[in-house]
Amino acid sequence: MAQFTKANSLYEWLDQRLALSKLWKVLAAEYWIPKNINFLWAMGVVLVTMFTILVISGIFLLMYYKPDTKLAFDSVNYTIMQEVWFGWLWRHMHAVAASVVFLVIYIHMFTGIYYASYKRGREMIWISGMLLFVTFSAEAFSGYMLPWGQMSYWAAQVITNLFGGIPFIGDDLVVWIRGNFYVSDPTLTRFFMLHVFLLPLVIMMLIGLHFYTLRIPHVNNQDGEEIDFDAEAEKYKAGLKKESKVIPFWPVFLSKDFFVLGIFMIFYFFLVFYHYDFAMDPINFDPANPMKTPPHIYPEWYFLWSYEVLRGFFFDVGPLSAMDIGLIAFGIANVIFFFIPWLDRSPVVAPAHKRGAFFYWFWALLIDMIILTIWGKLPPTGINAWIGFFASITFLLLLLVILPKITKKEAQRAGGAV
Amino acid sequence: MRELKILAIVIFFTLVTYWGVEPFAHSIMHPHHEPATFKYEDLKPLNKKGDPKRGMKAIVNNGCVGCHSIKAANVPAPMDPVTASASYGVNPPDLSLAGALYDEKFLANVIVNPAHAMKLDHKFGDNKPFPMPNFYGNAQDLADIIAYLKALAKHQQLTPKAAFINACGRCHDMKYDNWYVIGPKPKMDTELEKAEFNLKHAQYQANLKNYLGTNPPDLSMYIRSRGEEYIRDFVEDPQKLLPGTAMPRVGLTKEATYQVIEYMEKVGDRKKDKRNFLGAWVLLYFVIFSILAYLWKKQIWKEVE
Ligand code: HEM
């Protein structure tokens, strides 16, 4: 039985009942982070902030948004953008945050790959992160449909159509997803539900899971050094702060993150006020019109690389049609990153510049994905189709063949050296 | 310093990606076109001097007021918009501001051969005559009409909204500013009035569709979906940007075009000034925030580094 004595302050009263100081210690004041890290380790806190902005601005939008194909466009572009007090600001903040959050996610992911932070006990961190990526993608896709503009409609039409390529159940699946034979009112209403309830709920739970997976292995550091966190924490607590290799989450780690966050916010709000077209495609300010196909249909920038893998295979091979090959490649592209911890066959945890061939592989992957992203937006004609094709093949080879190969060699070398 | 090097790399790849998906991709998707000159060089200039005092007579003699109203000269519309659209496909515009809206050379040509000046020869011809007849009067009459219209327009002020309503409002709704092709929607109390208004609007739209083959879009948000530059160049010569389109070349002067654009911006991007103003303060806030955060960080890290 716990001991309850008369409390001298409200804090003490609560502390006796909720163990606040212990909770704070566990979560922040004695949650240990390596000292040897750079600002790339602040991206997680930036992501939490962006998600918070999305939730808060989303709630404000939700008070006036109408999930009905007849009302949606005007509720966003007239009611929210013109009538509601600062509605335009919430909308710009929401739309720009939705786009910028993916930039930060990609930086976060590539940081993980560069420093090999997905192995030696950190596999679950990586997997929960990938689950977040997939759910965020679904969240962004469903949100993009809501203003019911031309791109909302046509992107939904094209993407839901993809499920038709799944053998046997494809056609039924498309109808099931759309709630109708074509994208229409029931589609909008159900994506609205996904966007404002189910997916945000799942994201919040996944963020919890992601943090939980960090507890045991702790975050990695700039040199991939294996740190005895208990011993280093004792040193820190004993006052050897300079000698210890770790710092507490609060206040030391966060004090740096706040600074990074401040710089990031300058960048973010600059985009919100002065440079938003990249996140709010002008074409989407034309109301959805099922009778009028836009000359160019493309997804938001963060989906372009996988979209290009889908389009890259533009000719039939034997019994397989171009469409089928594209779909298979697209399917692989969407799940392949989940398997990075096992495609990398080497036990070495070190930054890429200390891993020989892996270093070149890393930059090749990054550049290839940027090429896929750019060519994913261009019309797939002439030379562009071939560039897309080679970049898609390169992408699959890099992940499925080259990565296991070079890391296996690395493993042999490491085995020999030790 | 290592962190700055990393930052430079992150910024570099972000900018390359941005450049590729925005300026570069758009330059390929929307091939470059020459900006509007407002010279209407394909048309023949008017080479007679007109007398404004004789203009009104010429207008009456040539039958213009059988279709057009000239409210500034107390000439009422012969029909209401819906009836007019049933006869001509579209409600003929009021001519009070014509002298200020339209380029002089264009005005002369549009009176003489409207389908040709509007670049709609591909839609109209002998078996489908354009609703406004060609002008077969004498050249002096033409010059007088134009001189009169110009003098008349001088006495009025051309506001952005008036420019839009006169030049575009017979075909395009602007519902975020309560403009409809049959006129502004009045305050209505009964369901019957609302139904009547909607019926008239639907009838007009049906006639327009019959005439043009398609319904001109509501332009409320077009300033955001197309942008100033596109609208300017499109209005000057629709066929250049959308070959085969049913939208006529309207023949506006440069000033009138910018008035129209100003109006579209006022309606479709009403918060622009607020946005630009507030932006500076929010950025300033985060600059100060960052400086304080940096000082705090330095102080805290002194103990551990
Ligand atoms: C959980 C909280 C969220 C709520 C309540 C919410 C709510 C809304 C609402 C009501 C809209 C329609 C209004 C509009 O288009 O501006 C919207 C749009 C949108 N949302 Fe969210 N949202 C949330 C989170 C997110 C997240 C996490 C993302 C992406 C990562 C996202 C991406 C989008 C996108 C891309 C649009 C379209 C924006 C536009 O075209 O203006 N949302 N959201």
Description:
Chain A is mainly alpha-helical and 418 residues long. In chain A, 65% of the residues lie in helices and 1% in strands. Chain A has two domains: 240 residues, Cytochrome Bc1 Complex, Chain C; 120 residues, no CATH class. Chain A has 16 helices and two strands. The longest helix of chain A is centred in the C-terminal third of the chain and has 35 residues. With 305 residues, chain B is an all-alpha fold. In chain B, helix 2 crosses helix 7 and helix 8 packs across helix 13. The longest helix of chain B has 31 residues. At the A-B interface, helix 4, helix 5, helix 11 and helix 15 of A face helix 1, helix 10 and helix 14 of B. Bound molecules: protoporphyrin IX containing FE.
Name the descriptors.
heterodimer; A: 418 residues; mainly alpha; Cytochrome Bc1 Complex, Chain C; globular; B: 305 residues; 3 domains; 14 helices; 57% helix; elongated; binds protoporphyrin IX containing FE
In short:
The complex is a heterodimer of chains A (418) and B (305). Chain A is built from 16 helices and 2 strands.
Helix content of chain B: 55-70%
Portion in strands of chain B = under 5%
Alpha carbon gyration radius of chain B: 26 Å
Shape category of chain A: globular
What is the overall shape of chain B? elongated
The main β sheet of chain B shows up as:
none
- Shape-level CATH architecture of the largest domain in chain A: Up-down Bundle
- The radius of gyration over CA of chain A amounts to 24 Å
| Number of separate helices of chain B | 14
Considering residues with a beta carbon less than 8 A from a beta carbon on another chain, report the largest interface and each chain's count.
A-B, 52 and 50 residues
The first-level CATH class name of the largest domain in chain A = Mainly Alpha
Number of strands of chain B: 0
User: Count the strands of chain A?
Assistant: 2
Strand order, biggest sheet of chain A? Answer: 1-2
Order of helical and strand elements of chain A: HHEHHHHHHHHEHHHHHH
Unreliable residue runs of chain A: none
Tell me roughly what share of residues is in helical segments of chain A. Answer: 55-70%
Low-confidence segments of chain B: none
